[in-house]
Amino acid sequence: MAIQHNRCETLGTIADALGAAGIPFEVVRTFEGRPVPNTIKGFNGLIIMGGPMGVYEQDRHPFLRQEIRLIEDALRQDRPLLGVCLGSQLLAAALGAPVTKGKSKEIGWHSITLKRAAAQDPLWAELESSFVAYHWHGDVFELPSGAVSLASSEKTSHQAFRYGRSAYGVLFHMEVTERIIQEMVKAFQDELQSEGLDGLRIVQQTPKHLPRLGEIGKSVFTRWAGLVGNRGEP
Fold this sequence. Notes:
Blueprint: E1 2-4, H1 13-20, E2 27-29, E3 46-48, H2 63-76, E4 81-84, H3 86-94, E5 99-114, E6 130-141, E7 148-152, E8 160-163, E9 167-170, H4 178-187, H5 189-194, H6 199-229
Parallel strand pairs: 1-2, 1-3, 3-4, 4-9
Antiparallel strand pairs: 5-6, 5-7, 7-8, 8-9
Helix pairs in contact: 1-6, 2-3, 4-6
């Protein structure tokens, strides 16, 4: 099951990895008014995608509270879980970690550094320790108790983490395609302007950075799809 919060932030290359592994998936589009299921029953894994809302806006967006309950259910049943951007923040919140506004927004192409623990991780092992990734977030989370921090950036201490065997939160975006990036720049023009950022420059930098990021994402998502196929066993 995948939860999608707005039209432009699709599964992207995550869908490719699931398709290559022969894993069917159902997308619950909250922006179309679809309700979030109460349970993960009947599904082998859960994906929570990004969105412009904040974890702390549950009164304004009640489906966020429902998603946290769904995440808790997936954790109880030891289902592989992947949270991207907002999804990673919701996973952190479900595990009891604070999610707050960062000192400044991190948008565009910025470097990621993998931490030492990533070298022994089922998803991140054997990848280069530093690469340029695509970012679009203003909120950050503290590392949940019992979780393993896997990556950081200059602005953000925890860019990726693992909890248990197969629950992963990734704050940056590896699933993006050229089209997704172009649509995000178009959809969130007001945010770019308020931050003094040039959307055209972000798009122009895409051919330089996206090919390698796409290869890294393919590796990580393929391995995660393998966890779904094996019900969480590495």
